[in-house]
Amino acid sequence: MTGSITDRRAVVTRAPTPRLGRLRSWWSNPWRKPRLLEAVTWAYLAWSILPIFVAVLISFNQGRSNSSIQGLGLNWWWGDPSSSLFRDPELHAAIFQSLRLSVATMVVTVPLGVAFALGLDRWHGRGSGTANFVMLLSFVMPEIVLGVAMFLVVVHVLAFLNLGTVAQVVGLVTYQLSYPVIIVRARLLSVGKEYEEAAMDLGAPPRQAIRRVLLPLLYPAILASFTVVFADSLDDFVTVRYLSGPANSEPLSVKIYNFSRGSPTPAINAAATFLLFATTIVVVLGYLGYRYTQRGERREDMTALTGL
Amino acid sequence: MRRSAGAAVALPSLSAILAACTRPGETRTPEQIDLLVPRPDRPVTLPMTGEPIATDTPIESGAELQIFNWVDYVWKAIVRRFVEENSEHDISFSAVTTFNNMEEAVSKMQAGEIEADVFFPTIDAVPKLAVAGLLQPLNHELIPNLEENVWSVYQNPYYDQQWRYTVPYTVYTTGISYRRDVISDSQIYGMANPWEILWDPAHRDRVGVYDSYRDTIQTALLKGGITDINTGDQGDLDLATDELLSMLDLVNPRATINGSYKRLPQGEFDLHLSWSGDIAAGWGYVPEYTRDYYENLGYWFPEDRVGPVDNDCIAIPANAPHPRLAHEFINFLLDFQNAMDNFSWVGYQPPMNDAQPALLTEAEGLYSQISGWAEPAEYVLPWMESAVVRQSDFDVGYRQAPLSPEADERWNDVWQQFKAGVKTGE
Amino acid sequence: MSKPASSPSPARVSKVRRTRAAEQSGVHYPRWFWPAFASPAIAWLLVFFLLPLYTVLSIAFGTVDPIFRTPLPVWQPWWWTTSHVVEGLDKTFGLFQQVYLRTFWYVLLASAVCLVLGYAVAYYVARHGGRRKTLLLVLLVSPLWISYLMRMLAWVNLLDREGYVNRILTFLHVVPQPVGWLEGRGITVILGLVYGYIPYMILPLYAFLDRIEGSLLESGRDLGADPVSTFVRVTLPLSRPAILAGLVIVSLPMFGDYFTNTMLSGSPSTTMIGNLIDDSINTAGQGPEAAVLILILMIMLLIPIGYYLRSTARAAEAR
């Protein structure tokens, strides 16, 4: 009689078995640390970045092998008298071509794309839906379709255009055009029309309203567009390969592909590493500029870069 | 959607406007077709589509030499030597414009997309390009080395009588390269039909063929006992198709360009269809440059020398920016020492009168001499003596000649089936 | 990035109404203003996007020069020849059927791996990144800064029989002997595709997961659900649009990929649609066939593309 209630309570509150109970309580803890996800993430990052390290490391290989390190040295950077990066005009031409293509593409695509974004966003008349559709179509089209189609056009229709740098830039611009549009439109959505309209209410003509009010608001997106288009076209392969002409119009990506079907030396790794540095610098500058243009504003996260 | 499609039709080119009134498609006369399919017993004199440049044309000053060639098919050091020897004309050179196969090269030239000074075609491309006016006739006085140094047969080759458009570049045979640490010489040489070894399931995943339709299909024909390697007969080609598809099932081959000279020495293949020059150059690509590693490389070719033998050519495109320089370069390449030095790197033998075949397996080439990091290697390693090409080989061997358009289409169909990886028995 | 949803004040409402009316009557901007902005790009796309697509059509329905076998485009639809198209369709279900099926299979597997792995990584970085979020983001994006082909070439060297991957695997006794990764295996091609395209899955997923209101997810936790249930019942349904966007961005380019197969395999038993196109574009006499292959590819992808475009349009309207 005396211990009956306490006995029942003891029965009710006792856990099933010590071990299973701990496991179950660990599993159902809403606040537990995601150890598995963390492990997966770091494993993924290692898998993702390891080849880059290896590629950069091999560029400092003393020997001729592309697969095993035979000592370290600057042989392929400027040591070897004919094949090193510093001495081989073919690699120079390739690097310059890559940079030339990306800068030219960037310079053409971004203004075209920003204007397109503005037009598409604000234009509510006939044809805007079609234009929007065509733009999105160019975004999702596999690159081989665009590359082959452009190749056929250049060879069979636009005879004045030869395969080479100009054709490559044209192809790249077409392929990249949708990126600035998507990025800028995402930004436009958050900016809204009030500022321009306020400016115009205060008497500014439309062109000024855009130049002095809207564009500065769009600087982060424009900068992001420059960076994205630059990085993406630096690395482009399918389009520029179909549209390459003579040897000096082949950017580094095409050279790497050709060499991989021939006999690559670590010098090609050195060239790729060199471009990696160039890209890193550009991206860092882009990011710093982005932060600078965002100063004083509610801080947008970098998801605007992805624009999705 | 319909609206934008309608807008897109609006931009024809001039040729399209002209063609708007006529049905497209060209026709050629039968004589022209005959020109395009020369055979050793039916030699062809290509029509002159222009005048060669004058003998007294000066070498173009400040020119950058433009070469259109296969990957790794001319030694850059030799080109640089040429540039140095002509430094008084301020010549420069940066890179070779490359192509992956002859079809790509021909289609780019036909489209007018290439401006090269020298071009290295295979024989089957020569008549096509010459008849279309895409090659320029050579001025023989500017290339005296051909008559001085080169096998005399090349002053009147069957595909270009009177050597109007081409000079020979290299001669080679097509056989099988193999790793001697996996397959012994006696094993492969002892077989009744050694071509069959490429179908041997014991070497599954370790067999390679060339990413070239003529050479690979020809191998299937030879394995099946058909000796006409230029056949257009559908029955023959059906047999070849069956053989190739069964090869896919049996050994899962890979199609490469560098498989024989680079990847087999590296150990990625045990067997590879091979041109003689590829395996001769293989010593430069082994993991460690010692005689032991060189001894792992082997080459098989029929002992009676009845097998595919051929040569490649050098030509000057009609739109060459620097034709005089091109002639000078060709003459340079036909110089005995330059040709032999190029041979030491490329592996492909030049048809030089002074190159004694017997000595090629004893003498060390320039590339080996300057490669201090590698043990010495002869032009052709002694245990692959079958890779040496003799003039007499051309009397008994099979030559790869240009195909007629219909035959070519059938060959392409066979190739497409092979490359698509269609499995038989499905 | 939506504006706070508060009820507008009367003054603001009338201003908005006034502005909208003014816009419709063109007071602020003339009617040609915005289309003029869009017109250079439209002209560009017309000439360099739509015209090339029409050229593909013209070549597919065109003829071939009988001697040189170069493709001859036919611009007028009334003179189109259907022989190449018919032959191409025939081959799609005959000769090339295996290639199409194989490509579908590879893309399916590769996209699935990209999704599962990419989602896990994106989720972790977005929701549990904490102070290291920026570092993690940089590490995630950095592979896109080095040439894609260089990364592939690095893998080719690593996967060699004597390469480091095999050395580690045999050292850890995971495999008894070195594996011939590069000897024409489908798994290598699939992993190569995953490797190349997974950043394009992670970034949109990250963007989305980063923007989700934390309170939505925490509500699940507050109510006592374990993390897995919260994920399955709250996060996953919410992320559907982002998942679809990521899948589209990743799988569509994979259909046209050919160089991954060429570099990592080279065997006809792993041929993909992209290889068929690439091989035929430079083969004499197969110009129309290449064009037909392109058309078939586009039509095949029209359904997912259409779906993606409609859902984007709907999402845009909803905003």
Quickly list its features:
heterotrimer, B: 426 residues, 6-stranded mixed β-sheet, 3-stranded parallel β-sheet, globular, C: 319 residues, mainly alpha, 15 helices, 1% strand, disordered N terminus
What can you see in these coordinates?
The complex is a heterotrimer of chains A (308), B (426) and C (319). Chain A has helices spanning 4-13, 18-28, 35-59, 75-79, 89-122, 128-140, 143-156, 165-176, 178-191, 194-201, 206-234, 238-242, 252-260, 266-293, 303-306. Chain A has 308 residues and is mostly helical. Chain B has a domain at 172-308 and 398-419: Periplasmic binding protein-like II (D-Maltodextrin-Binding Protein, domain 2), CATH 3.40.190.10. Chain B contains 19 helices and 9 strands. In chain B, helix 10 (234-251) runs parallel beside helix 19. With 319 residues, chain C is mostly helical. Chain C has helices at 10-24, 33-60, 83-93, 97-128, 133-141, 148-158, 164-171, 186-197, 199-211, 214-222, 227-238, 240-255, 259-264, 273-281, 287-318; strands spanning 63-64, 71-72. In chain C, helix 3 crosses helix 15. Chains in contact: A-B, A-C, B-C.
Low-confidence stretches of chain C: 1-5, 21-27
Instruction: Report the strand count of chain C.
Output: 2
> What average pLDDT do the residues of chain C reach?
83
Strand order in the sheet with the most strands of chain C? 1-2
Question: What is the name of the CATH topology of the largest domain in chain A?
Answer: MetI-like fold
The value of Rg of chain A in angstroms is 28 Å
Major sheet summary line of chain C:
2 strands, antiparallel
Distinct helical segment count of chain A: 15
Could you name the CATH homologous superfamily of one domain in chain C? MetI-like
What is the CA-CA span between the terminal residues of chain C?
Answer: 10 Å
CATH architecture of one domain in chain C: Orthogonal Bundle
- The average pLDDT value of chain A, as a whole number, equals 82
Uncertain stretches of 5 or more adjacent residues of chain A: 300-308
Structural class of chain A: mainly alpha
